[in-house]
Structure formats: structure tokens, C-alpha cells
Design brief:
With about 220 residues, this protein is of the alpha/beta class. The protein has one domain: Rossmann fold. The chain contains seven helices and twelve strands. The longest helix has 15 residues.
Amino acid sequence: MSQTAREDILEKLKAAPRIKPILRPHVPPLNELSWGHEQLVSNFAQNLIAQTGVLHQAKDGAGVKAKLLDICAEEGLKTIMVSTDRVVAPLDLPTWGKENGIKVTTAKDFADREAYKDAVFTQAQAGVTGADYAVAESGTIGLIHDKDQPRLVSVAPILHIVLLPVDNLLPTYETVVERVFGDKRKLPSQFTFTTGPSMTGDIQGGQFKGMHGPRKLIVILF
């Protein structure tokens, strides 16, 4: 292309009328943001159960441990691994386990990664974690993974038991994402959304549980 032709094209581009960007139409606030406590709990329960999750409710920490003991009896659990996150740690589940004949371990109990992996994959009958957040509109659990919330505890055992404080229950994905990622100075290294037990399907459309994670999800809301 000659210099003259290039200059002609540039001049035409400069002379072309500039089109103003199309403004997005006004989007009304999400109805879910107006949900009160009862609506949040009701919608979370309905959506969790629709995904074949199981919901129990308790009044406080003592009630959580009582529900957890019932679940261990119902599921035949004798060995569980628990996280040490801000929800679970105050319950002192290792001591609770000793009092009730249940072996309770944490990732910090193992000297090396191989021993920890063997325990969480082959010995733990269930993983117990707190929930950093939950989404009422879909029955989804949100976990921020770090040294106190190791990811394998929630994905390796065949049963995942989630302890969910009601204050961590929010209406929509957007509100959770804003809480987790809103402050760019404090971004987590890992964050996962989990909706129901692990599900996958084959080429014929058949559904299978537990192929890539827990086969059963139980939530204790308190």
C-alpha cells in the first residue's frame, strides 16, 4: 500500500462520524435482595433439596454437635476429618469425637502430605467443613480455601457435611461474589461454589453421583 493510499484511509477514518456507545437499559434491583430471614432459609432449603442435598437445622453450637452425632449414627461414621476454619474450630470437634467414640482428625495432624492424602482419601468416611457463604437462590455452598479450609476435606470423602451459620447465607451469587472478591487487596487463592453432591453424566445422558467428589451433601444450618 502506497503512502498516499494509507494517508487517504486514515483521513477518512478521522473524518467518519463517531458513534456514541449504546447505553445499557436500566436494570431493576434483584427481587432476591429484598428477601428476609425466613425467605432466605426457605429458598435455600428448597433449592438444596432439589439438588438432592440434605438439610438439618440447629439453634447453636451445642445443637450442631447433637445433630452431627445423630448424622454419624445414621451414616455409620466412625472416622471423620474436619477443617479448622472459623466456623468449625470453635466447636472443638476432636474433643467431641473422643467423648463420643468417633475418630476426628484434621489436616494439621499429619506430618507430611502423603500421610494426609492417604487419610482423607482412604480413611475418612466424611469431611466436615464450615461454609464461608451460601447462596439461597440456588442452594449453593461457597468455600474459601486456605490452610484452615483445605480443599480435599470437602471433595475427597464420599460424604461432605457442611456447618452453615445463618449469617453466612446470602440471597444471590452476585452478593457472594462481591463479598469474596470485592476487596482486590484480599483476594483468596482458591474459592469454590458447590451445588449439591458431585454429579456427572455419560454420553447417553445417564447421571452418576460421586464420580469427582462427595456422593452425599448434608448441611447443618444454625
